[in-house]
């Protein structure tokens, strides 16, 4: 994988940013141009030069907007023929991976960079690991996983829909300049494809699908003991069902559940405040680890749901004691109660 530095070449993706912070990502083409609100950016002004330069737009011709059948109707609308809107400056950079993900063509909805970053961190996905991913979508997560494991690692992606797989492959190829050699993209149902994979061959598994709780058996078969399972789901019902399935399976550690909220800030002199808009809930991340075969995951003692229908005063002493024991509650002792009353009496006396 070649480092993304040096002169900008035709075929590369670049990002144009104006002084208002508006970004446009486009592919450089010899003799081509990028249409903006303020004229055209000529690609020949960019190709062969380095990042960090500033280019100026040229006037955009708009003859095609003139009514060809009744041109007299546009006689008083000179802006439809020519718009002298050049002269706007844009800084030129290669897009960051987060920028590329948000701007790339999509087949399915992508994961946001805030969630992708958490997957990489919480999943402990790093150089040299072997990772299994299910649900390529548009390739946002795949490109980040490929970047995380590097050429010394390996990523296997299973995508149910062939058309989504093509979109993901094309986006990854555009980002790297060629299809990564350390990526194996397979199409088909997760259980069917995973059944052909060797046992305990993967260090990490990332599931982005509607029903990950139905895939836990095959996931456990192919993951190495101690491996990390990361699941991305969007609704509370999915999250609850997945967590209970992990607990019932007995071969996964107590799941950790997180969601990430993102808010940017404005800082202009003394005016420092958060933005009015933020990226709120997009999904939940459920993280668990695989136990070794023959061992059952340790479980926390479940706290029984409080009974809101039975009148505890109607129970016998034994039944009442048993229910209090289940609820991990205890009657206050007479000694404790006397101490509380003494303390309260003393505090009331201080009021005069």
Describe this structure in words.
Helices cover 27% and strands 23% of the residues. By secondary structure, it is of the alpha/beta class. It has three domains: 13-93, Vcp-like ATPase, Chain A, domain 2 (Roll); 97-289, Vaccinia Virus protein VP39 (Rossmann fold), CATH 3.40.50.150; 312-349, no CATH class. The mean pLDDT is 86.
Top CATH class of the largest domain = Alpha Beta
DSSP summary, beta strand count: 17
Major sheet summary line:
7 strands, mixed
Strand order of the largest sheet: 11-10-9-12-13-17-14
Number of domains: 3
**CATH architecture call of the largest domain:** 3-Layer(aba) Sandwich
The percentage of residues in β strands lies in 15-25%
Average residue pLDDT: 86
Rough shape?
A: extended
What is the radius of gyration? 30 Å
How many individual helices?
9
CATH topology description of the largest domain? Rossmann fold
- Unreliable segments (pLDDT under 50, ≥5 consecutive)? none
Distance between the termini: 80 Å
Q: Helix-strand pattern, N to C?
A: EEEEEEEEHHEHEHEHEHEHEEEEHH
CATH H level, superfamily name of the largest domain: Vaccinia Virus protein VP39
Structural class: alpha/beta
Helix content: 25-40%
Protein name: tRNA (adenine(58)-N(1))-methyltransferase TrmI
Domain tRNA (adenine(58)-N(1))-methyltransferase catalytic subunit TRM61 C-terminal: 100-268
Subunit structure: Homotetramer composed of a dimer of dimers.
Catalytic activity: adenosine(58) in tRNA + S-adenosyl-L-methionine = N(1)-methyladenosine(58) in tRNA + S-adenosyl-L-homocysteine + H(+)
């Amino acid at each position: 994988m070649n480092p993304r530095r040096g002169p900008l070449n035709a075929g590369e993706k670049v990002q144009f940013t104006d002084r208002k912070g508006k970004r446009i990502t486009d592919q450089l083409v010899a003799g081509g141009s990028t249409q903006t609100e303020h004229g055209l950016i000529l690609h020949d002004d960019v190709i062969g030069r380095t990042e960090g330069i500033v280019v100026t737009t040229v006037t955009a011709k708009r003859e095609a907007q003139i009514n060809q059948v009744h041109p007299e109707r546009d006689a008083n609308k000179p802006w439809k023929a020519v718009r002298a809107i050049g002269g706007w400056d844009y800084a030129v950079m290669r897009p960051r991976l987060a920028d590329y993900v948000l701007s790339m063509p999509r087949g399915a909805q992508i994961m946001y960079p805030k969630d992708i970053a958490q997957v990489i961190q919480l999943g402990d996905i790093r150089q040299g690991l072997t990772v299994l991913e299910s649900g390529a979508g548009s390739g946002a997560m795949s490109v980040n996983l490929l970047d995380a494991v590097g050429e010394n690692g390996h990523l296997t992606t299973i995508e149910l829909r062939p058309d989504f797989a093509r979109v993901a492959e094309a986006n990854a190829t555009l980002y790297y300049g060629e299809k990564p050699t350390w990526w194996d993209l397979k199409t088909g149902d997760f259980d069917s494809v995973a059944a052909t994979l060797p046992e305990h061959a993967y260090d990490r598994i990332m599931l982005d699908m509607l029903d990950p709780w139905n895939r836990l058996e095959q996931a456990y078969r192919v993951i190495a003991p101690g491996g990390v399972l990361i699941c991305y789901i969007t609704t509370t019902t999915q999250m609850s069902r997945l967590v209970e399935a992990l607990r019932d399976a007995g071969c996964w550690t107590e799941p950790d559940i997180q969601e990430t909220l993102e808010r940017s800030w404005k800082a202009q002199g003394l005016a420092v405040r958060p933005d009015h808009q933020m990226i709120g809930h997009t999904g939940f991340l459920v993280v668990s680890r695989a136990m070794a075969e023959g061992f059952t995951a340790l479980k926390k003692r479940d706290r029984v749901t409080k009974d809101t229908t039975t009148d505890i005063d109607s129970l016998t002493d034994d039944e009442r004691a048993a229910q209090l024991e289940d609820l991990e509650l205890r009657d206050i002792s007479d000694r404790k109660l006397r101490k509380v009353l003494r303390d309260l009496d003393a505090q009331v006396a201080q009021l005069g």
